[in-house]
Design a protein that fits this description.
Elements (H helix, E strand, L loop, with lengths): L6 E8 L6 E9 L4 H54 L28 H12 L16 E16 L7 E17 L35 E7 L1 H32 L28 E3 L2 E2 L7 H4 L4 H4 L9 E3 L1 E2 L15 E5 L15 E5 L1
Antiparallel strand pairs: 1-2, 3-4, 4-5, 6-9, 7-8, 8-10, 10-11
Length: about 375
C-alpha cells in the first residue's frame, strides 16, 4: 500500500478579460483515509493470526527434524558396532558402554581413547559418516548426552544345520542407543539417580527387552544385536564340519579302493606325530582312537585331506574341532574293527569359543 495517496482536483474557470479559461489546481486530500486504515489493521490482524498458528508448527517441525537426525546418527553408530563385533571381537560381542570423567556415562564409545580396539570402533563410526563431535552427544552447546545400553548373556538354541542336526547354544547380546535431553554438565538427570544412567528411559533387561521403549523426553532409540552374527558363525561352523566329514570319507574310500578286497584296515587318517589309540570308548564319548584337536600343531590330519588348518581347525569363535578316527559308541567292535566309523565334535556352547568338554551333555558331534 503506498505511503501517501493524494487526490488532485482540477477546476476550470472562464477567463474574464480575454475569453480563455483559468486552470486552478487544488490538493483536496493527503495520507490514509479512515477506511484505508481500518482495512490495513484488519489485514495485519489476519496475518498475525496466521503466523501465530504457524509458529507451533514450525517448532514441531524443527523438533521432528532433530529427532530424525539423532535417530539416523544412532543407526549409523549401531551399524559400526555390528561391523566391529564381526571383525574385531573374537566371540562376536558388542563393545561395552563407556563411562568416564566429564559427565560421560554409558556412552557408545570413548572418543579420547587410543587403544587399538577403541580406535577400530571410532574408525568404523567415521566410515558410517558419524562426526566425532556427536558420537557421545548431540553436538549442541549443552551437549545433550547419547546413551548406549548393552544386555549380555542372552541365549538361543539352534540346530547345527539350521533345520536339523544336534542343538547348539548361541550366546548373543542386545544393545540400544538413544538420545536424552540431559546436558553433559549441570544436569540432574546425568545420571538419573534412580537408574544410574542418563535420561528417563528404563534400564534394558532380559525381562523387558521385548517391550522396552524410550521414555519422554528421550528419543531416537535404535537397537543393535549380535544374534544374526552368531547365527552366521554357526552356519560357517556347520559348513566346516560337513566339509571335514566329506573329505575324511573321500580319503577313506580312495584308500580302500587302492587296497586289496580282503584288506579291512581302518583307513581314516591319524596324526603322524601323535596317537591317542587305546582309549576306553565307555569313558571317551565312544571313541577308541581320539579325540584329536584338528587345529593343534602336532596334528596333521587336515593336511592329509588337503584342508587348511587355520580355517578348518577351529570354529569361527576359536573353539577346537576334535576328530575321532575309530568311533565305537557301543564298545562292541574292538579296536579298528569293521564297520569303521569316525566322528567330529565341538563344544555345544559354540559361541563361547571353548573346547569340547568330553561330556555328552556339553558337546555336540556328528558321525560318519
Amino acid at each position: 500500500m503506498p505511503a501517501q495517496i493524494a487526490l488532485v482536483f482540477f477546476t476550470v474557470y472562464p477567463k474574464a478579460k480575454h475569453g480563455g479559461f483559468l486552470l486552478m489546481v487544488r490538493n483536496r486530500q493527503s495520507g490514509f483515509t479512515i477506511i484505508e486504515l481500518l482495512i490495513s489493521v484488519i489485514i495485519i490482524g489476519i496475518l498475525a493470526s496466521v503466523m501465530a498458528a504457524l509458529f507451533p508448527m514450525l517448532g514441531a517441525l524443527s523438533q521432528m527434524e532433530y529427532q530424525t537426525r539423532q535417530k539416523s546418527i544412532n543407526a549409523s553408530i549401531a551399524t559400526a558396532m555390528e561391523t566391529w563385533a564381526a571383525t574385531q571381537s573374537p566371540l562376536g560381542q558388542l563393545p561395552a558402554p563407556y563411562s568416564g570423567s566429564g559427565g560421560v556415562i554409558s556412552a557408545p564409545v570413548n572418543v579420547a581413547s587410543t587403544t587399538s580396539a577403541d580406535l577400530s570402533l571410532l574408525d568404523n563410526m567415521r566410515r558410517n559418516r558419524v562426526d566425532p563431535a556427536v558420537m557421545d552427544n548431540d553436538g549442541s552447546p549443552g551437549e545433550n548426552v547419547r546413551v548406549y545400553q548393552r544386555l549380555t548373556g542372552l541365549t538361543e538354541t539352534s540346530p547345527l544345520f539350521r533345520s536339523t542336526g544336534p542343538a547348539a547354544t548361541l550366546t548373543y547380546q542386545l544393545g540400544v542407543i538413544y538420545m536424552t535431553s540431559c546436558t553433559r554438565s549441570g544436569s540432574t538427570c546425568n545420571p538419573n539417580p534412580s537408574l544410574s544412567i542418563p535420561g528417563a528411559s528404563p534400564v534394558l533387561t532380559a525381562a523387558n527387552r521385548g517391550t522396552w521403549t524410550t521414555t519422554d523426553p528421550d528419543t531416537g532409540a535404535i537397537f543393535v544385536s549380535t544374534l544374526s552374527l552368531q547365527r552366521n558363525r554357526l552356519d560357517i561352523t556347520a559348513e566346516r564340519m560337513r566339509r571335514i566329514q566329506s573329505e575324511l570319507l573321500r580319503y577313506f574310500n580312495l584308500m580302500r579302493l587302492s587296497a586289496s578286497p580282503a584288506d579291512h584296515t581302518n583307513f581314516y587318517p591319524g596324526a603322524s606325530a601323535l596317537t591317542l589309540a587305546g582309549a576306553n570308548p565307555a569313558s571317551n564319548m565312544g571313541c577308541r582312537d581320539g579325540w584329536y584337536n584338528l587345529g593343534a600343531a602336532n596334528v596333521d590330519v587336515l593336511a592329509k585331506i588337503a584342508l587348511p588348518q587355520a580355517e578348518y581347525g577351529t570354529t569361527p569363535w576359536g573353539g577346537s574341532i576334535q576328530y575321532c578316527r575309530d568311533y565305537d559308541p557301543l564298545g562292541t567292535n574292538g579296536p579298528n574293527a569293521e564297520p569303521h566309523y569316525g566322528a567330529i565334535r565341538i563344544n555345544k556352547s559354540v559361541s563361547t569359543g571353548s573346547a569340547p568338554t568330553g561330556s555328552a551333555a556339553n558337546d555336540i558331534w556328528i558321525t560318519f
